[in-house]
Input
Amino acid sequence: MAGFDPQDKPTRRQVLTYGAAAAALAATSGKAAAQRAEGQPLIGNPQLPDVPGERMRWAIVGLGSFAVGQVIPGFADARHSRMTAFVSGNAAKARDLGARYEVDRFYGYDNFDRIADDDQIDCVYIVLPVGLHAEYTIRALKAGKHVLCEKPMASSAAEAQAMVDAARAANRQLGAAYRVHFEPNNVHALERITNGDLGVMRYISADHGFSANPDYPPHKWRLEKELGGGGSMWDIGVYGVNTSLMMLPGDRVVSVSAAYATPAGDPRFTEVEGAIDYRFRMASGINVQGSSSYCWNPYVSRQRYFGSKASIEMQPATTYGDNQIMIEGGEHPPRTYRAGDPMQQFAAQVDGFSLAARANTPHRTPGEMGLRDLKLMEACYASADADGAVVKVDIAV
Output
């Protein structure tokens, strides 16, 4: 309804309309005057986020594509974590990102050890190429910081053991950044398996790979053994190894076998293998079979879990934002669904580590898990080097 100028003579319709509005306002005011605003007690024990000043403070070490595209944005939804420092060899990039994310503490690789004197850093997230993981993790632990390190945790089991030992010596927490353990769809699959929805587990398969492009900087270092640590299994196949074992709590790996599957004459693979197929024999009697490749196109991320009553297929299974579940068998027709937003995994992972660091108690994916997986991958390489010979192990899941 349009208003009117008080200098104009109102029409009969305007008088009636404004009169009705005034009467309604008076009636409402009368009701308001008869009521009082009263406080209510806090009900239950709600899990509230920390206020910013109480959140654990993080330094991000390495500002490559994964850190900038996934890790750093994940802090926006974190409830117990905040970024306070960036460590990079590119000072201009670090300061540009700092201005965007309100981070004002900057270090380079040349003065990294000075973080020991920075009381605004509680936790360090190592997001460097694999060949640098052990060095910077151990230096951060010696500086008195808790460390979450990207997967795979190191270039070798020996390096990983040194990292675990350094964490114990410093009385600090070390975590391997296996984000899938915090991804809602994979967590849901684990719940279905442990609840017996699939019956008794019979078989697990895992396929992970993509086509490596040596002209693309984020791929180039993966094809160099010194930085990449190993080949496709070190980078993409580790998802299949870790996620498969995630679904078998309490089991043990008793033997390993593997075979290389690298295309002959492919110039990309002069330092590392291009592909590998592997099999784990479990104490429960089931097999975990997987494949890992730098030779496939398009990108593949698939996990399949077969039980005596039903099966689950996840394709994609371990991506940043597209994971989904298909269940077949049991009492219902086949269906595909999501149990939650996969993007939650990044905030959930850093918050999970923040809470573990605050209490100084082991993380859900501790350094010992990263060490376990490196021992298994080294056993795969030993088998492949021996033309598929079975390697006996005794490794608890």
About this structure: The chain has two domains: 52-179, 181-340+367-396.
